[in-house]
Amino acid sequence: MVKQIPQFIIAAPTSNSGKTTITLGLLRALENRGISTQPFKVGPDYIDPKFHKVACGKNGLNLDLYMTDTDDILATYATYAKDKGAVCVEGVMGLFDGARRSNGSTAEVAKVLDLPIILVVDAKSVAYSVAPLLYGFKNFDKSLNIAGVIFNRVNTKSHYQFLLEACEDVGIPALGHVPFLADCEIPSRHLGLSIQEMQGYDSVIEKVANAMEETVDIDSLLDCCLLDEKSTNEIPTISTSKKINIAVAEDEGFNFSYVQNVECLKQFGDVTFFSPLKDEKLPHVDLVYLPGGYPEFYTKQLSDNKSMLQSIKNFAEAGGKIIAECGGMMYLGKSIIDKEGNEFEMANVFDFSTSMQAMKLNLGYRTIQFDDFELKGHEFHYSTIFQHKNSKSIATVFNARESEVDTVVFQYKNVLASYIHYYLGQEKLLKNLLKLLTN
After folding, report:
1. Residue 307 class from Cβ within 10 Å (0-12 exposed, 13-18 middle, 19+ buried)?
2. For the chain, which residues make up each domain, given as ranges?
3. What is the pTM of this model?
4. Which of 35, 50, 183, 190 is deepest in the core (most CB within 10 A)?
5. If you classify domain 4-228 with CATH, what class do you get?
């Protein structure tokens, strides 16, 4: 007999509606009930999945239709949802917001996984006028199943009554509401929260969960989202003839990597985690992975750790393989300049520097076209890079609308560095990149 478990996507008409807050509260509420819940996140965001772990003890897995394909998403979902008591997928932006129109949107992921949608609506400044909004979302794409609505920032029973009547007239179940909760705002991802600071939001998440138990019909939500466990093939095991030793940077300054990337690396070899902030030198390895993070918040500590900087430099000069993304790339440069204009020496593998002065947001999906293969990824940073005019990009980079952008992919010996966070969660992708770093 096929087991049924609650499975659903939390979506919203717009960004900043409260998806993350309600997702975290619901994850904690289910965990408090003894229901082991697997979280996922639509899109490339690497901060929300870390909050998922604070809420329920499990990493959120990214499901992204731009960076990977349908088969990979189905396999990832089936692998990590197996034997769980429930599955909660947090959407991205508005329900239909994709890289191009609705391509890659929360709605598209809901179709791929055949999941019901729980819509979160910010009702702070609206009453019965929410009815046409709900009607539009219900009827714009009738292949979607909007199983219910949770209203956010509703403080009175009379306010909720208007919203309840709107749901009744439109034909979408109202599953309850969440009041405005003082001091319960989950911060934006650009604020530079360390892993320890994220843990500080444990009490905030608990407060949201307790409030939701009072005003949200969680039992009805679970009942209306019961589905058979997915029987799709799980992630295949990689068989490699030669195992390699891999070091992955992970500390307060470097911790933005997709779970799938690290899991794929583990199938290629033995993974050891190290800290550029605290360790004196690299472990003895064949490959170093320097993911992104917030090195700009730890510039002095990184710069003062001369033995690690020299160890990285020596490894690169000796032909060691390094994959560096965003913050990892900044660390491999000559220096990082902070917002006040103070300059701190880094590993000096590349001759460029990066600066946090005159910060400007660079954001978007990226397709990286090398000579004989391509990778997908995402760019998100405020720093700028300079003094790299003598370094030519080894790849051509395009955005989601297929327009070329000026993001540079650097290579020095067997070191690859870029602002782009690559998706490397499939065997063929990682193999291609490692082949590039062999000379």
Report:
1. exposed
2. 4-228, 244-436
3. 0.94
4. 50
5. alpha beta
